[in-house]
Amino acid sequence: MGDAMKVPVLSAGDGVRLRPWRLDDVRAVEEAAEDAYIPLITSVPATYSDAEGVAFVRRQWQRCADGLGYSFAIADAGDDRALGQIGLWPKEYGRASVGYWVAGPARGRGVACTALRAVSGWGLGELGIPRLELHVEPWNTASWKAAERAGFVREGLLRSWQEIGGERRDMYVYSKLPADLG
User: Fold this and answer.
1) Which Pfam families does the record match to this protein (predicted)?
2) Which residues does residue 87 pair with via DSSP β-bridges, in sequence order?
3) Residue burial 82-118, b: 16+ Cβ < 10 Å; e: rest
């Protein structure tokens, strides 16, 4: 990976595109910071300021520059406004993890599902990653339904898998393989 990594622009369809983060995307970071849950599971600041918003965007750039993975702004294809974030994080042994959030005002429009289809098609196809994984808390129905609509398959429940907000939480584990495309 290394310095050859670059976050591309991906047309996702359904009025959504994925693109690199820009400094003018801080409004989406502010909206995400207003959600009680997103800052617990991401690097979105719990208390928003313009400086914290800019720092978030710069962290997204740095992750790719450091070879850690790809952080995309999920953007409205019409006005290019950032609606959320999706990331693809390559790991060892031919796997990559996927994570995403959608800011409150953009929820309920299928944005997460559309972004998941696009990033998983790109990761499994163009990048040739053999297996994508994502983890979702069982109570987060909207998130796991988006994963299932995007072709991810629930493989099981990981008990006490991750610490969130100071407590151990169960997680559903989902995967998507090249054979699942299509």
Assistant:
1) Acetyltransf_3 (PF13302)
2) 71, 99
3) bbbbbbbbbeeeeebebbbbbbeebeeebbbbbbbbb
> What pLDDT is recorded for position 168?
98
- Regions of the chain short of the pLDDT cut 50: 1-3
pLDDT in tens, 121-132: 999 999 999 999
Helix/strand/coil percentages in the chain, nearest 5: 35, 35, 30
Residue keyed to tokens 């918003």? 53
Cα-based distances in Å from 63 to 66, 67, 68, 162: 5, 6, 5, 22
Handedness of CA 33, 83, 168, 45 (dihedral sign): negative
Distance CA 136, CA 163 (A): 13
Non-local (6+) Cβ contacts of 161 within 8 A are 135, 168, 169, 170, 171, 173
Number of neighbouring beta carbons within 10 Å of residue 154: 13
In order of start, what are the domains of the chain with their CATH numbers? 2-180 (3.40.630.30)
